[in-house]
Design a protein that fits this description.
With 295 residues, the chain is of the alpha/beta class. The chain has two domains: 182 residues, FAD/NAD(P)-binding domain (3-Layer(bba) Sandwich), CATH 3.50.50.60; 106 residues, FAD/NAD(P)-binding domain (3-Layer(bba) Sandwich), CATH 3.50.50. Strands 1, 2, 3, 4, 5, 6 and 17 form a seven-stranded mixed β-sheet that branches. It has a five-stranded parallel β-sheet with strand order 8-15-9-10-11, covered by helices on one side. Strands 12-13-14 form a three-stranded antiparallel β-sheet, with no helix packed on it. Helix 1 links the parallel strand 1 and strand 2. Helix 1 runs parallel beside helix 2 and helix 1 packs parallel to helix 8. The longest helix is centred in the last third of the chain and has 24 residues. The chain is elongated, with a radius of gyration of 21 Å. It starts with a strand and ends with a helix. The model has no long low-confidence stretch (mean pLDDT 94).
């Protein structure tokens, strides 16, 4: 059975950032990555220092390429199906039933966005339906926008456009919420939505159950999310009320030796944040290994 210092599950921004830090710390690392990144549907990634406008696939390619000089870092395209702790670390089982051992485990498996059951929504996701104004707000600035969310999302998007409509899809807002939106010239539509229409990824209209349409250029939404992988739950990690994995400042979960980074540990999600959280987890892991070996 092959043994590593660290196995990283997930090769997105957080996982590759952690692998780089650990490789430079002379740690033997295996990165398990099936290539299913959450932001793959986006045309471009924005707000990441020195790489603004780069496609998600190109960011991953660069990240993997820059790991090549570190011969102790291995990339594996097979996923992880199970992990269990033992006295000296963890035994990992890959999807192809290969078993490996490691001293520390880093989960960087991300989250899955749950789309509303509205016709046309999935087809426009990542093209003109977005979750992050910091990632995509500039490209639709001053355009007519639709908001699927609450007061916080409306307040946030006010910085990018004055033409905002908040859609509740049948839900009723409180009097205080309605008054605050009216004060800021944000319209409210409570009718049920049956579909969204667009061409070549560009949103054109939102269609209500009564047949009425409203022209919009983009939608911003706070989608429900779930963990992409069951490994954290399987290992017994604690979760926050937001459904994210609970960690300390260096990514250590409630389970000794298990660390987590990226979108799976925080509701504020951006490539820059994921890179930072991956790097912090790597530092925490290396520090723990050094302390164990020193003592």
């Amino acid at each position: 059975m092959k043994t590593y210092d660290v196995v990283i599950v997930g090769g997105g921004s957080a996982g590759l950032s952690a692998a780089l830090q650990l490789g430079r710390s002379r740690r033997r690392v295996l990165v398990s990555d099936t290539g299913k990144t959450r932001n793959a549907v986006a045309h471009e990634s924005h707000g990441f220092f020195t790489r603004d406008g780069t496609t998600p696939a190109e960011l991953v390619r660069i990240g993997r390429e820059q790991l090549r000089p570190y011969e102790t870092v291995e990339l594996c395209s097979v996923g992880v199906k199970a992990a269990k702790a033992h006295s000296k670390g963890f035994e990992i089982t890959l999807d192809d039933e290969t078993r490996i051992a490691c001293r520390k485990l880093l989960l960087a498996t991300g989250v899955v966005d749950e789309m509303p059951e509205i016709e046309g929504f999935k087809e426009l996701w990542g093209k003109s339906i977005f979750h992050c104004p910091y990632c995509h707000g500039w490209e639709v600035r001053d355009q007519p926008l639709a908001l699927f969310g609450g007061i916080e999302l409306a307040e946030l998007l006010k910085g990018w456009s004055d033409d905002l409509v908040l859609f509740t899809d049948g839900a009723t807002l409180s009097e205080d919420e309605s008054r605050l939106l009216s004060k800021n010239n944000i319209s409210i539509r409570e009718e049920r939505i049956v579909r969204v229409e667009g061409k070549n990824g560009q949103l054109e209209n939102i269609v209500f159950a009564n047949g009425e349409t409203l022209a919009r250029k983009a939608i911003f939404i706070r989608p429900k999310q779930q963990q992409h992988s069951a490994l954290a739950k399987q290992l017994g990690c604690e979760f926050t009320d937001f459904g994210t994995v609970k960690v300390d400042d260096f990514g250590q979960t409630s389970v000794p030796g298990v660390y987590a980074g990226g979108d799976m540990i925080h509701p504020m999600q951006h490539i820059s944040f994921a890179v930072s959280r991956g790097a912090l987890a790597a530092v925490g892991i290396n520090r723990a290994l050094l302390q164990e070996d020193f003592r």
